[in-house]
Amino acid sequence: MMLQEIKKKAIAEYFWMNRPWVILTGAGISTESGIPDFRSPHTGLWKQYDPMEILSTDVLFNKPELFYQIGFSILMKFKHAQPNQAHCILASWESRGLVKAIITQNIDSLHIDAGSKKVLEIHGHLRTAHCMKCLRTVSIEKLESLVNGGQIPPHCSCGGIIRPDVVLFGDMLPSSFEEAIKMVQNSPLLVIGSSLQVSPANLIPSLAKKLIIVNLDETPFDNRAAFVLHGKAGMLLNFLDEEVKKIAERV
Ligand code: APR
């Protein structure tokens, strides 16, 4: 039996024996849904703009044209993206008791769209926006129509500026981050599709006592993981799902 096969079976056993898992996902799990990630070379989208600059509170407040005409419009380009195989497998694992929660850095709502119930969106989401003065919530479609109608920055009827409910560089993280930290201290963690370069999200894998990483490229946490699978999330999760089903049938 090839080494790879032995490794695959060992990972599936480890995954099964330590269930349920907490999952941490990054932009890499959504690239197979057509949404470019942030740091893979030649992803095009972010080649000419630094997301850490454009998607920041400094640009939102001081250069709203740059934020809304570039940053916001880039984010909204992918609002019709659909969940891919990896999102769907994770939702199935939750319903089968293999996954207890997903912590995601993604704002694309694809885990929720795939049917996952316990999803901690630690970088917010693109479903709604709010007025920074009266805090009224509006739909992202309303915000988009104001921006597309040339109102930059977009204003609320109270005169305040409206911003999307995503976490920008410079923002505090939402309370879901604290919940994520508590959760990962007592559960094994499977990381999927993240470079693990952005803090404080990369504090999460540093707290995990049991760690598996599934990622196209190497990450700074590979040497801490019990197992690392470098490759595409859809194909690798599908393989792991097949192996785990075989184990589940034996018990
Ligand atoms: N399967 C598995 N891994 C993939 C795939 C794929 N199909 N496609 C890309 N990857 C990997 C890349 O190798 C890369 O290491 O996903 C990782 C994505 O890393 P980033 O682009 O840095 O995205 P992420 O880790 O989510 O960034 C974190 O940074 O810009 C901020 O707020 C933004 O939430 C984002 C945060």
Question: What does the secondary structure layout of this molecule look like, with pairings?
Answer:
Layout: H1 3-17, E1 21-25, H2 51-54, H3 57-62, H4 64-76, H5 85-95, E2 99-104, H6 110-114, E3 119-121, E4 124-131, E5 137-139, H7 140-148, E6 162-166, H8 175-184, E7 189-192, H9 203-207, E8 211-215, E9 227-230, H10 233-250
Parallel strand pairs: 1-2, 1-7, 2-3, 7-8, 8-9
Antiparallel strand pairs: 4-5, 4-6
Helix pairs in contact: 1-10, 5-10
This protein binds adenosine-5-diphosphoribose.
Adenosine-5-diphosphoribose is lined by residues 26-28, 31-32, 37-40, 51-52, 105, 123, 193-195, 197-198, 215-217, 232-233.
Short description:
The chain is of the alpha/beta class and 251 residues long. Helices cover 38% and strands 17% of the residues.
How would you sum up this structure, described in words?
With 251 residues, the protein is of the alpha/beta class. Helix content is 38%, strand content 17%. The strands form 2 sheets. Strands 3-2-1-7-8-9 form a 6-stranded parallel sheet, with helices on both faces. The chain has a 3-stranded antiparallel sheet with strand order 5-4-6. It is elongated and about 65 Å long. The chain has helices at 3-17, 51-54, 57-62, 64-76, 85-95, 110-114, 140-148, 175-184, 203-207, 233-250; strands at 21-25, 99-104, 119-121, 124-131, 137-139, 162-166, 189-192, 211-215, 227-230. The mean pLDDT is 93. The protein has 10 helices and 9 strands. The protein has a domain at 3-35 and 81-123 and 172-250: 3-Layer(aba) Sandwich (Rossmann fold), CATH 3.40.50. Bound molecules: adenosine-5-diphosphoribose.
